[in-house]
């Protein structure tokens, strides 16, 4: 190949030849820029790694372990670990697409919420083999005529079983939970929405709860998918005890959760109990 032509001479300006940097000087400048870029990149990676580690650490910590997020006890009860009972082999869940009747194939007695730590069980709700007599369920309603009417509705709607559980907590709060199972979800939903519950008050008054209204303080965000909830609280002035109650409609089952306490039933344990029972049914 022919030799490259020589670079043209640089013209002098004012008799002084300008100082033109050679190629090696430019290379050193490029290397300095590259090193600076690499240093900033490395620093960014380090800060990102530290930030990710801190975020992971906070995510993995309990709320009370994080400074500034710790909260005092808000009155919640200490329930045992709760898990859904196993289904019979080949049986779908109550809200599976194949289960059009919304049937709970799990043992209804296993769907009752367990008592919290330190509570004393109510032996009167155990029933025979875990099934509560219809008469014992109706006895909690105040009005004799209402008990008779409700008893007829349970018969007309082919009530299958009643499972119940109750306890008294250390603070004196009495809890009663009743699960009523019908043939289909359509029957149970109609029973709950038209025969037992209204928007602003229940259809039938419980003993000791003559004036009852819709519980406006029950948080809507605590709703459980596929479970319809009607929550009520006894209005002031109430008698020796305040009563809180909630009806739940979940598949083929209607639940009634009742809490009462002398001087006033706290809202936090009531909400906690209702939501946990809803999750078991849902």
Average of the residue pLDDT scores: 82
Portion of residues in beta strands equals 15-25%
- Span between termini: 85 Å
- Number of discrete helical segments: 5
**SS-derived structural category:** alpha+beta
**What is the spatial order of strands in the main beta sheet?**
1-2-3-7-6-5-4
Number of strands: 7
> How much helical structure, as a percent, in the residues?
25-40%
Low-pLDDT segments: 4-71
Question: What does it look like?
Answer:
The protein is of the alpha+beta class. The protein is 29% helix and 17% strand. The chain is built from five helices and seven strands. The protein has helices spanning 23-60, 134-138, 144-156, 185-196, 267-281; strands at residues 120-121, 161-168, 174-181, 212-214, 228-234, 241-250, 253-262. The protein has a seven-stranded antiparallel beta sheet, with helices on both faces. The longest helix has 38 residues, at 23-60. The model is unreliable at 4-71 (pLDDT under 50).
């Amino acid at each position: 190949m022919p030799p490259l032509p020589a670079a043209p001479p640089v013209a002098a300006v004012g008799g002084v030849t300008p100082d033109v940097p050679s190629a090696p000087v430019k290379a050193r400048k490029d290397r300095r820029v590259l090193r600076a870029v690499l240093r900033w990149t490395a620093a960014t990676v380090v800060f990102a790694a530290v930030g990710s580690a801190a975020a992971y650490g906070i995510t993995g910590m309990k709320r009370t372990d994080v400074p500034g997020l710790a909260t005092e006890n808000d009155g919640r009860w200490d329930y045992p670990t709760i898990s859904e009972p196993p289904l019979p082999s080949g049986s779908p869940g109550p809200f599976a697409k194949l289960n059009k009747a919304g049937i709970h194939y799990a043992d209804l007695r296993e769907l009752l919420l367990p008592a919290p730590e330190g509570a004393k069980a109510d032996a009167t709700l155990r029933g025979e083999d875990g099934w509560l007599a219809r008469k014992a369920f109706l006895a909690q309603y105040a009005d004799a005529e209402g008990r008779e009417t409700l008893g007829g509705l349970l018969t007309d709607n082919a009530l299958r079983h009643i499972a119940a559980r109750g306890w008294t907590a250390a603070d004196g709060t009495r809890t009663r939970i009743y699960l009523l199972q019908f043939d289909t979800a359509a029957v149970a939903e109609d029973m709950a929405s038209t025969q037992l519950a209204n928007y602003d008050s229940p259809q039938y008054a419980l003993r000791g709860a003559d004036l009852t209204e819709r519980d406006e303080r029950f948080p809507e965000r605590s709703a459980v998918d596929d479970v319809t909830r009607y929550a009520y609280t006894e209005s002031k002035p109430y008698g020796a005890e305040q009563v809180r109650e909630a009806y739940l409609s979940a598949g083929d089952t209607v639940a009634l959760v009742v809490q009462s306490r002398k001087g006033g039933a706290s809202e936090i344990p009531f909400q906690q109990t209702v939501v946990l029972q809803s999750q078991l049914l849902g």
